[in-house]
Amino acid sequence: MDNQIEFKNVAFSYDNEQGKRDIIKDFNLSIKRGSFTVILGHNGSGKSTVAKLMNGLYKPTNSDGTVLVDGIDTKDEKNEIEIRRKVGLVFQNPDNQLVASIVEEDVAFGPENLGFAPEKTRERVDEALKAVDMYEFRKSTPHHLSGGQKQRVAIAGIIAMKPECLILDEPTAMLDPKGRAEVIRIIEKLNRENGITVVLITHFMEEAQSADRVVLLSAGEIIRDGTPKEIFSDIKTLKAVGLDVPQTTELLYELKENGIDINTDAISVEETAALISAALHLEEK
Amino acid sequence: MSNIIEVNNLCYSYDGDAQIVKDAVHNVSFTVKSGEIIGIIGHTGSGKSTLIQHLNGLLKPSSGEIKIEGKNIWEEPKKIRDIRFKVGLVFQYPEYQLFEETVFSDIAFGPKNMGLTGDELVGRVEKICDVVGIKREYFEKSPFDLSGGEKRRVAIAGVMAMEPKVLILDEPIAGLDPKGRREVIEMVRRYRQQFDATVLIVSHNMEDMAVLADRLLVMNGGKLEMFDTVYNVFSKGDALKKIGLSVPMVTRVLNTIKEKYSGVRTDIFTIDDAVKYLCELSAGDSNA
Questions:
Q1: Contacting residues of A for B256, CB less than 8 Å apart
Q2: Structure confidence by residue, pLDDT tens digits, A253-278
Q3: CA-to-CA distance for A116 and A138, rounded, in angstroms?
Q4: Parallel, antiparallel, or unpaired: how do β-strands B223-229 and A66-69 relate?
Q5: Identity of the residue in B44, B264, B285 whose CB atom sits nearest the CB atom of A176
Q6: How many Cβ atoms from other residues are within 10 Å of residue A265's Cβ?
Q7: Which of A28, A38, A167, A185 is the most exposed, fewest CB within 10 Å of its CB?
Q8: What is the per-residue pLDDT for B288?
Q9: Which residues of A touch B45 (CB under 8 A)?
Q10: Domain harbouring A222, CATH code
Q11: Contacts of A258 in chain B (CB under 8 A)
Q12: Does B110 lie in the same domain as B242?
């Protein structure tokens, strides 16, 4: 079984006094074990719903829809604990996710709840803090950390429970550029070095650069599914669904629209500079 | 043009807790002309938030003075409430402070505090909603049924409804998607135009600052590092990098090109200008 998570014909709708509202419908998606998938979508595209369905926090609202985690059905309540252990969820606001007054106590909260012996908990906490480069802050107060540091502590709290899969729902939306870069670097590292399956949900395109796969979501539907380069070269679609297009990609696209023969699938500043230099034959000057 | 804000030798230090002393402000002086849009940039902990909380009297300087329309705001401490109506401050994530049952009551809260009642109050709320594009059908909705971007706009409109001459916004676009960002920027622009207001915006988004601001105020370590036109500030890319900031992404692309091909201009900060320049360069190339 090499699918970590599998959605089969999943629907999810809210039912309140204003009527029934479908968030997603006929949703099918498989996430491969060990992969790094980015789900891109604007606010209200259904991406947070998809995140919560992935660890059983939400269940499909249609009877024939299933979400399987490691082959286990999230609908069956007796699987709940096992699923939560396999799939950890990190949210947008780090302040809402930190509970203790000392960093290491916060990270210990999960393993302690799982009933580990103190020595085992100690080991897990140290390992997790080292994995997010926050070990030296283990005795600090979360309140005194920067946003990026707090979010890394929140991630450590999840990985101390050794999940197979980490789902992050806009983990950088409230951070400054430095904090964002720190968190993305850690997420990439956890995937590459620790083999954790990562699903990163975001509306920042540039965070998807090193993903294996990008899934583009709009109005509850998957409208594109491919490698970052495939998705990012289709600027028209990205803009049409209200996504952030980095200035680099946008610049290349605008140059092409203005009749310059140029590739548009770069995101990094270096790649973009190289493409422009080549297209304008700058080396001949 | 007259100076609406004048800050002279502003110093502020927190008592006691040495851990957070990094947030203090040291000897900051600057003036803002009426009608300007000022971008305030600086990395986390550089003193931006502490600085702006002085401008409407939420914090009192340890030393130095703040003048609004030529008058020291602490001259009559009992009248500091009037300053809060004249200088409106929108905090970070203001939507977390929505608390009324309807959108209308939330927006009406500020003007009500100013003493407006009855038709005058209703008129005030309707006026600001027309200016910033909040439709009447939203009035009776609960703020909690709105999307994130809509909540943000309602929260900002609540401050705008007091019609402050100076509007200060702390990271008003953080956490919003591009559509939400555009809407907030547009509502700030319209407010400024309609009320001849002066606007100060704290932001991490250099790309938006390049398009929106007249001048940039750069904070670093509690000190005023630079206060100059967008052009002059973004021309000092190396100095900005040293204090943890960056120039817009298009400028970084041009800087990278220049490392190999020296005749390339790097004083370009927006997509539109970059496209124009590179197209000219390309045309020149094919004519040669």
A1: 269-270, 272-273
A2: 999 999 999 988 788 899 999 999 99
A3: 19
A4: unpaired
A5: B44
A6: 17
A7: A28
A8: 47
A9: 146
A10: 3.40.50.300
A11: 275, 279
A12: yes
Range of the domain at B162: 3-247
A33: in domain: yes
DSSP state string for B89-146: EEPSSGGGG--SSSHHHHHHHHHHHTT--HHHHHHHHHHHHHHHT--GGGTTS-GGGS
Distance CA B259, CA A177 (A): 24
Element (H, E) at A192: helix A177-194
Task: Collect all residues of chain B within an 8 Å Cβ-Cβ radius of residue A246.
Answer: 249
First to last CA, chain A: 57
Token digits of residue A279: 């297209």
Q: Does ipTM exceed 0.90?
A: no
Query: How many Cβ atoms from other residues are within 10 Å of residue A177's Cβ?
Result: 17
In a domain, A10, yes or no: yes
Give tens-digit pLDDT for A167-223.
Answer: 999 998 888 778 888 899 999 999 999 999 999 999 888 888 889 999 999 989 999
Question: How high is the pLDDT of residue B20?
Answer: 47
Q: Count of domains in chain B? A: 2
The answer to whether A203 faces chain B, any CB pair under 8 Å, is yes
Minimum-distance CB partner of A247 among B178, B260, B271: B271
- Full residue range of the structural domain in which residue A92 is found: 3-227
B204:A270 CB<8 A = no
Kindly state whether residues B71 and B127 are assigned to the same domain: yes
Q: How many domains does chain A have?
A: 1
Q: What CATH number does the domain containing B120 carry?
A: 3.40.50.300
The contacts of residue B125 (CB under 8 Å, 6+ apart) are B104, B107, B108, B111, B139, B161
* Residue A285 pLDDT greater than 60, yes or no: no
3-state secondary structure of A95: helix
**Measured in whole angstroms, how far is the alpha carbon of residue B154 from the centre of its chain?**
17
Alpha-carbon distance of A188 to A128, in angstroms, equals 15
The residue from B232, B247, B262 where one domain ends is: B247
Q: Could you tell me if B261 and B129 lie in one domain?
A: no
Mean pLDDT of B62-69: 94
Residue A77: inside a domain: yes
